[in-house]
Amino acid sequence: MSQHQTPPKDLPEAPSTALTPAGITRRGFLKGAGITAAGTALIEGVQVFQREAVAAAPQNVKEFGPEPFPVTLQINGKAHALQIEPRTTLAEALRIQLNMTGTKVSCDRGVCSSCTVWLDKMPVNSCMTLAIDAVGHHVTTIEGISAADEMHPVQAAFVRHDALQCGFCTPGMVMSCAALLEKNPHPTEADVRYAVSGNLCRCGTYPKVFAATLDAAGQLASKA
Predict the structure, then answer these.
(1) Is-above-0.90 flag for pTM?
(2) 192 in Cβ contact with 134 (< 8 Å)
(3) pLDDT tens, 102-153?
(4) What secondary structure, in 3-state letters, does 105-151 show?
(5) Can you give the pLDDT at residue 35?
């Protein structure tokens, strides 16, 4: 080729991995610049969120933790003074500090409902409820639904119908079914099914749970 001949126009461009004089590839530079811009925007967004959260926070709020602090819980009609950490769940407070082991913890994720207790007669998963959030409310556990030495009608019906096998889910089942009868003394089987729809029984005793709850409803109706 003579020195005046023009080079072909279809020569490939330099690859994006070609090094710059500083030893950085063009691809690496572009990626780094993009990450830096995104990171800066993220940090600025977090800072704005933090400022807004601080401005919106109520004033004169007392902070607790991480060390234990005193609380009083109303459980089964009695006041219990405890020292708890802010992270303590209601299930932990009941089982570990108060030795109320009738409340079972199985999944510890709010999935199986074996830990069901009442908070102002509303069934809740105690493994997902902080003990500090129960302050000022009335907590009822499986130990507290019976009167003296007499079983609750739902408990007695569970025994009559053999509505349990391993028994680990039974306290939660009983609490859910008893809560149903508190609100609806004349339930249908569909009502019972709905009431225990969040209670998992790996032994599969659901049909007997339904029968026991309807039986308990009949027993209560006959005494009314």
Answers:
(1) no
(2) no
(3) 999 999 999 999 999 999 999 999 999 999 999 999 999 999 999 878 999 9
(4) CCCCCCCCCCCEEEECCEEEEHHHCEHHHHCCCEEECHHHCCECCEC
(5) 63
Element (H, E) at 39: helix 26-56
SS3 209: helix
Question: Are residues 145 and 77 in contact, defined by beta-carbon separation less than 8 angstroms?
Answer: no
- Between CA 142 and CA 126 the distance in angstroms is 12
Q: What is the DSSP string of 151-202?
A: PPHHHHHHHHTT--SS-SSHHHHHHHHHHHHHH-SS--HHHHHHHTTT---T
CATH superfamily, region 145-224 = [2Fe-2S]-binding domain (1.10.150.120)
Of 222, 122, 141, 129, give the one whose Cα is nearest residue 179.
122
Residues of the chain with CATH 3.10.20.30: 64-143
CA pair distance 104, 97, nearest whole angstrom:
14
71, β-bridge pairs:
82
Is residue 26 within 8 A of residue 18, CB to CB? The reply is yes
Ranges for all domains in the chain classified under CATH 1.10.150.120: 145-224
Residues 158 and 164: beta-carbon distance below 8 Å = yes
Q: Look up tokens 């913890």; give the residue.
A: 105
Fold for domain 64-143? Ubiquitin-like (UB roll) (3.10.20)
Question: Is-cis flag, bond preceding 123, omega within 30?
Answer: no
